[in-house]
Design a protein that fits this description.
Layout: H1 2-59, H2 65-80, H3 86-103, H4 106-114, H5 116-150, H6 153-157, H7 178-181
Helix pairs in contact: 1-2, 1-5, 2-3, 4-5
């Protein structure tokens, strides 16, 4: 009887340890999903801010008409793509990045920076481009960590993620215009 008691106590200890591990893992997974949600909202806000600054720059009259039109069209497409599927939205944001690079070469940036409101707009555009990069990086880091945790055998076996959709990284070109970085 004494041997059975030791086995019973050992079994209870193992069950408690596995339960504690599963509870901590589920908490970590929940934390990562919340981090992904908040990072996604932050990225949305930064993308919206970047397109707003681009529209403001396009409408300011500081750029030549062709660059202004190109930039305004790309910024408008990016702003109106929020209801689109993620792949189309990422394409619209990448197109805005390309339009910013095309409209703002080093000579254009130097010319815009000479004007009083131009320097301020370029600073704001630079800050918003950097924030987009940071927000996207933070989101993608959270997604990678979540995916790594969800691939673990115990997480899959006990279905700790429940019915939460598999998180996706946000892939887009977020390179700021080269002339903007070199200022």
């Amino acid at each position: 009887m004494n041997g059975w008691m030791v086995v019973g106590v050992g079994l209870v200890v193992v069950v408690l340890l596995v339960g504690a591990y599963l509870s901590m893992t589920a908490g970590r997974l929940d934390h990562l999903h919340r981090r992904i949600d908040s990072s996604s909202l932050a990225l949305d806000a930064q993308l919206l801010r970047r397109s707003s600054v681009a529209l403001e720059l396009a409408a300011s009259g500081l750029l030549d008409p062709a660059s202004s039109l190109l930039l305004a069209e790309a910024a408008h497409e990016a702003r109106t793509s929020f209801d689109e599927p993620p792949s189309e939205r990422a394409m619209a944001e990448s197109d805005l990045t390309a339009a910013l690079s095309a409209a703002l070469d080093a000579d254009d940036i130097a010319e815009v920076a000479l004007r009083e409101s131009g320097a301020e707009m370029l600073e704001e555009l630079d800050a918003s481009c950097r924030r987009v990069q940071l927000s996207r990086r933070f989101l993608n880091d959270g997604v990678r960590a979540c995916r790594q945790l969800r691939r673990q055998r115990m997480v899959r076996l006990f279905r700790l993620a429940g019915h939460t959709p598999w998180p996706d990284t946000w892939e887009m070109d977020d390179t700021p215009p080269p002339g903007l970085v070199d200022r």
